[in-house]
Prior knowledge:
The chain is about 0% helix and about 50% strand. It has strands at about 5-10, 35-40, 50, 55-60, 65-70, 75, 80-85, 90-95, 100-105, 110-115. The N and C termini lie far apart (about 45 Å).
Amino acid sequence: xxxxxxxxxxxxxxxxxxxxxxxxxxxxxxxxxxxxxxxxxxxxxxxxxxxxxxxxxxxxxxxxxxxxxxxxxxxxxxxxxxxxxxxxxxxxxxxxxxxxxxxxxxxxxxxxxxxxxx
Length: 118
């Protein structure tokens, strides 16, 4: 039986993730031209996984990637404490204006974000 996973898309670096304004540019000039996001992968027992293959498909196929395992660590706040957990990191550059879709996939589970870029 195949494992069941959940994917949580996060902002691992303050001020460089989701929820801000973005501007397209053929080359990175400032933080508006890119995003730093990540995915936390959990198995069916809610255990965070750092040794699975995570694929990322983007609106710009040259930035698609597959990650086999991760060594990236992020500190997140729970209701009662802060914990350090592994995540899969993506640096994505906005080279064209319009709508950008970033999809993380592990096993047969997908989660995505849509980002509007000026």
